[in-house]
Structures are given as structure tokens and as C-alpha cells.
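Subject: design request, 218 residues
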């Protein structure tokens, strides 16, 4: 009986994992297409939403939450980000706007590196206590706050600061909400804040040099 129950439990987890990954990929394709269409159509104060990695990051994190395991969460994170890129590129191709190889290489690498981290982070926040939950929360909030800081410090002259302040506020609110939901004790909250600050600083460095690396690929 125990072996039968274990087999059924394993089958249930595998089916749940497959459903989560398929849903992540389908939603990613749709989100990528919508992003491509939204560029140039949004009002000035919201136009950065269609160019922001923060919106894709948040969606990838949310799509990984239903996954039953950390492995399937990582697959959801990677699959959703890669399918967002595919949806974006395919939609632009259908509209007569070919994508550069540099863009595809850069964002494919970002999906490969950041996608699994976000997916595992979502699972840790949902299912694991302590430091791992703090790390999972920081993976998301660090990206949101890091890009908000990049927008305000580096590209504030060419984009509206309203969006970046809004994204920064979302990052702070999610950090506070996640800490209140999963983190018990001042020590874990401090860890989450420090981890978030570290992720944000790394993001700013990588994002600042990323466009220059894209220029190296024709």
C-alpha cells in the first residue's frame, strides 16, 4: 500500500510539473507577443513597461509558484523567459521588424541564467523556511529594485521616472509582504534586505554593461 501511494504521489507530482511548465511556456509566448505590440503604444509614463525586464521577471516568478518541486520551478522560470523572448521576436517578425542576433543571444543567456534562479526562488519562498525563503524573495525584489535604480540613475533623461519609482515601490512592497508572509524573526528579515541589496547591485552592473556586450554580436 505504501509503495502504491508513493507511486501515485510521484505520478501526481510529475503531472503537476508538466502542467506548470506547459502553462509557463504558453503564458510566456503570449506575454512576449503583447510586449512587442505594446512598444510604442503605451503612454509616456508607462512606456518603459514594454521594455522592462522587471515585468518579465515578475511574471516568470509568478508562473513558477504553482510548480510542485524546485526542479520544475526552475524549468518554469527558464521556459517562461525563453518563450517570452520567442513570442517577442516572432511577433516583431510578423510585423516586419527583424530582431538582432545580439538581442536574442543576450536575452537567451539571461533566460538560461536568471530563469532557473527565479523559478527555484519562487519554490523556496513558497515551500522552504528560513534563509532559503529569504533568498527566494530577494531574487525577485532585487531585480525589481535594481532595474528601478538603473532607470533612475542611468536612463532617467530618456525615460519617465514615474515608471521607475512605481517599479521600485512594487519591489519594496513585495519585499515587505513576502517578509511578513514567510520570514519569522528580525534576523531573517535583515538577511532578505541584504540579499535584495546585493542582487540589485549585481543587476545594475550587469545591465549597465549588457548593451555593450550586445553590440559585439552582429
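Subject: RE: design request

Done. Sequence follows.
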Amino acid at each position: 500500500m505504501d509503495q502504491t501511494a508513493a507511486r501515485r504521489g510521484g505520478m501526481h507530482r510529475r503531472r503537476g510539473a508538466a502542467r506548470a511548465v506547459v502553462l509557463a511556456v504558453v503564458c510566456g509566448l503570449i506575454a512576449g507577443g503583447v510586449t512587442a505590440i505594446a512598444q510604442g503604444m503605451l503612454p509616456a509614463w508607462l512606456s518603459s513597461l514594454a521594455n522592462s525586464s522587471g515585468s518579465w521577471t515578475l511574471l516568470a516568478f509568478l508562473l513558477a509558484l504553482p510548480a510542485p518541486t524546485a526542479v520544475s520551478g526552475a524549468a518554469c522560470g527558464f521556459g517562461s523567459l525563453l518563450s517570452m523572448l520567442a513570442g517577442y521576436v516572432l511577433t516583431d517578425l510578423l510585423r516586419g521588424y527583424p530582431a538582432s542576433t545580439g538581442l536574442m543571444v543576450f536575452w537567451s543567456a539571461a533566460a538560461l541564467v536568471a530563469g532557473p534562479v527565479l523559478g527555484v526562488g519562487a519554490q523556496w519562498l513558497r515551500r522552504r523556511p528560513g534563509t532559503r525563503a529569504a533568498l527566494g524573495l530577494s531574487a525577485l525584489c532585487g531585480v525589481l529594485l535594481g532595474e528601478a535604480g538603473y532607470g533612475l540613475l542611468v536612463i532617467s533623461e530618456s525615460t519617465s521616472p514615474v515608471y521607475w519609482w512605481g517599479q521600485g515601490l512594487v519591489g519594496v512592497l513585495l519585499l515587505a509582504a513576502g517578509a511578513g508572509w514567510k520570514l519569522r524573526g528580525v534576523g531573517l528579515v535583515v538577511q532578505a534586505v541584504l540579499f535584495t541589496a546585493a542582487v540589485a547591485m549585481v543587476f545594475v552592473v550587469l545591465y549597465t554593461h549588457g548593451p555593450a556586450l550586445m553590440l559585439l554580436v552582429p
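Confidence is low (pLDDT under 50) at residues 212-218.
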